[in-house]
Amino acid sequence: MESIKSARFKYYAQSVEKLKTSNPSRWWKQIKSLGGISSKSCWYNQLLSNDIPNCHDLVEVFNCFLSGLTSHFTPLKREEEQLDFNVPGEYLIDANKVYNELRKIKTNKSPGPDMIPNKILNVFAYELAPVITDIYNSSIIQGVFPMNLKRSIVVPIPKVSLPESVEDDLRPISLTSQISKVMEGFTLTKLFAQIESKLDTKQFALPGKSTTHALTYLLHTILSSLENTSCSARLFFADFKKGFDLVDHNVIICELENLGVHPAIVRWIKAFLSNREQCVRIENSYSSWKKTNGGLPQGTKLGPLLFAVLVNSLLKDWPGRVKFVDDTTVLEIIPRCSPSFLPIIVDQISDYANERGMRLNPKKCKDMVITFLKYKLVENDIFIGGDVVERVSSFKLLGVWLTNNLSWDIHVDNILKKANSRIYALRLLKKAGLSPLNIVHIYCAVIRSQLGYASPV
């Protein structure tokens, strides 16, 4: 036993500890492995079969699936390049702004498809700032976006511990060029300033708001309404099928124009979205590159705001709504002996989605009734395309479990279960030779963050 313990200490001291400063990302991966925080097994093995015999085939299958989602969309028309010297001066940037953004880049993050190390961009910020300034200003004036910066490497993240379906159990996260992200940031600031006052006040995925604000607002509205003992509450949790991956670029551009966004910004976003290419990477296997006719790459700075624009006018006249990017929750307060109008509202949501090339997923949409009335309520079922929406007694919304009796038991049990499993990981890390200070840092990262999430709710 002593030899095993000694070997653990030696392995950490000689091979792992030095990574904390030289390669923090790799150090963290080693820590998760030593503590059993992440599974050592290859999750993608679950998806291999006779039809998909190896990882190389898997990345091709997943990339074909993703690109096929939007193959029926009409690609954005490419406009003729033209100089627009009427672009407002405040839309142009100077080298000092670019320098400041380059210095903020985290050097331990993976590079994008251009393979330019983040450390190069950070360390040589002074030398690179004038070049990137010229590129961005030229792109605004000409209404173009460099093709080399439009590529994305899609890294699938399993939604469940043992994924069974390529179509349903993988979330595509896009690695894009860091230079592209810097340029996006400048456009994002200008776009948000123009549309902030026109965005839905119940959209909580905006600066100054958070998931905690969304949950607090929803529960406060429910509790305030149920103080009147003759009322009940009914919730519909909407799930847009493939969310970010099933977005028509033409609809986005139309929505931006309807919001009165300056033509120079609209042209730039149009150039940013059009003719994008992506490949899929799992471990060291890469798929071929494919063009996409739609979708918003998850991992870009503009993506969340553009999706918020897409659903901006959804149910704007219905008071009981909570939006957080692609999560939409509808609340109906039902007076005693009154019918529920929520099925009609869901029909409106479905129509809104279909008109914009989106789709509700009837299997993942849920219905919940909260009531403390003594008599049994009889609500009409909610249908989506002929499928009945399942009524549930509990639902995980924005990371918090809500129940039809407003109890926190399920949520607390889930948090404690996660915390207990990770406390065991701390014991393993202590045996591996980690210092008390490092163990405290890991506790804050993987346990206290879980315990404190949305605690004001």
From TrEMBL:
The keyword Methyltransferase does not apply. The keyword Nuclease does not apply. PROSITE patterns: RT_POL. Pfam families: RVT_1. Keywords: Nucleotidyltransferase, RNA-directed DNA polymerase, Transferase. It comes from the Eukaryota. One of its GO terms (molecular function) is RNA-directed DNA polymerase activity. This is RNA-directed DNA polymerase from mobile element jockey. It comes from Paramuricea clavata (Red gorgonian). The lineage of its organism: Eukaryota, Metazoa, Cnidaria, Anthozoa, Octocorallia.
